[in-house]
Task: inverse folding
């Protein structure tokens, strides 16, 4: 018999190391089961373990531990942990916990781990609930989603709670109001996380923040660099002041610095011009145009430049969601006394774009009312279905109602002739 009570396994024969027999097949499943049980119950040597369909070697080990005969062919053999602990101590001078530690490393106390995880999770939930956004629907959707999909649990178990805390700080530090000066992304990262690279694409903190901003914007999480940049800029954060651009045609400005000179020269010849946020930041523009029209699609600006050249009314194109450069330019125009005439596509995204720009002082809708939408529907032979989350049109509540009823979008190109009439 090869149990711990046999003559060949006396403490004196073990020496400073455990005998090779504890690594033999007769012991392997038994010790593995003991480790699992101890790790589950907080390393308390209590209760019993069992092995099913035991081999002959395992049967002999159990008999040696318990001192009780077990018949051949038994389907399951059980051993009290206390008996196993005593047998190992008597045979080798070390009890169960010490033996398992020496054989295969320290035991995990999963009870203590779960307690620590629960405490850390509770602390993290407190962080999430003590922000100025708590109670806002989009913020609730975000926190619910990161709890539901296991993000919080994984963060706690992998020691990644700092990313969640940094994400909350980043959301709080972002510009609070539309029209606030844009904040460079590295500056936000340094303020929120103490690391200028904490919000680079793909980082845990950036992923969490962009997910929250997508809920806030009522859109999908961005899938490429362009969408990511647009989402940052929508909330006043500039990922790259060279990549943030605005397309301009014939904007009148005083030629008092080099960028203003470029813009004025382009207007002299009716040439569309791209301004970067970096260029706009190099010096203020003194806008002299009394009115600035704003469209969403570059096709409108391209057609206007081709049709009228230098005789076209000043036109700014947002090219979708207005960039930080676009907002900066329109702010300069308003400060110069220009009236801003705003329009976008007749779809839900277009209503959001128009609504955000109509918050500018003195801004008015440009062919962006219910009648214009109905005219566009009549003029089109084919219609695109409306998709995405509905939006409001506070400047003309009937517009959103008409769009919801019809269920179709009307792109700016559908009413291009009317827009060109206004720009001539």
Result:
């Amino acid at each position: 018999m090869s149990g711990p009570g046999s003559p060949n396994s006396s403490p004196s024969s073990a020496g400073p190391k455990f005998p090779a027999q504890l690594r033999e097949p007769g012991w392997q499943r038994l010790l593995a089961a003991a480790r699992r049980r101890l790790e589950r119950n907080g390393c308390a040597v209590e209760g019993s373990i069992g092995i099913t369909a035991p081999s002959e070697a395992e049967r002999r080990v159990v008999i040696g531990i318990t001192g009780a005969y077990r018949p051949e062919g038994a389907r399951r053999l059980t051993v009290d942990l206390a008996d196993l602990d005593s047998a190992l101590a008597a045979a080798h001078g070390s009890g169960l916990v010490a033996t398992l530690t020496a054989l295969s490393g320290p035991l995990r106390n999963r009870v203590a781990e779960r307690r620590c995880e629960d405490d850390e999770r509770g602390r993290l939930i407190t962080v999430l609930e003590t922000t100025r956004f708590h109670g806002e629907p989009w913020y609730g959707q975000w926190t619910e989603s990161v709890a539901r999909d296991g993000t919080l649990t994984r963060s706690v178990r992998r020691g990644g709670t700092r990313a969640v805390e940094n994400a909350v700080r980043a959301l709080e530090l972002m510009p609070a109001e539309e029209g606030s000066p844009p904040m460079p992304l590295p500056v936000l990262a340094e303020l929120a996380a103490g690391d200028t690279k904490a919000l680079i694409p793909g980082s845990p903190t950036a992923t969490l923040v962009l997910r929250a901003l997508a809920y806030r914007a009522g859109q999908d999480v961005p899938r490429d660099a362009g969408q990511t940049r647009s989402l940052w800029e929508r909330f006043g954060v500039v990922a790259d002041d060279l990549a943030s651009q605005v397309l301009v045609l014939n904007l009148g400005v005083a030629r008092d610095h080099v960028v203003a000179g470029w813009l004025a020269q382009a207007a002299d010849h009716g040439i569309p011009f791209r301004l970067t946020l970096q260029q706009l930041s190099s010096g203020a523009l003194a806008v002299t145009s009394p009115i600035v029209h704003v469209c969403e699609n570059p096709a409108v600006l391209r057609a206007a430049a081709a049709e009228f050249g230098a005789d076209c009314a000043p036109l700014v194109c947002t090219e979708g969601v207005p960039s930080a450069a676009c907002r900066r330019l329109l702010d300069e125009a308003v400060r110069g006394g220009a009236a801003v005439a705003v329009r976008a596509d007749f779809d839900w995204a277009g209503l959001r774009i128009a609504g955000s720009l109509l918050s500018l002082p003195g801004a008015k809708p440009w062919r962006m009312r219910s009648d214009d939408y109905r005219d566009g529907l009549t003029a089109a032979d084919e219609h695109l279905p409306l998709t995405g989350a509905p939006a409001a049109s506070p400047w003309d509540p009937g517009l959103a109602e008409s769009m919801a009823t019809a269920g179709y979008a009307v792109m700016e190109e559908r009413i291009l002739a009317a827009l060109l009439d206004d720009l001539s």
About this structure: Residues 1-16 have pLDDT under 50 and may be disordered. The radius of gyration is 35 Å. Residues 56 and 119 are 46 Å apart (CA to CA). The first strand starts at residue 48 and ends at 52.
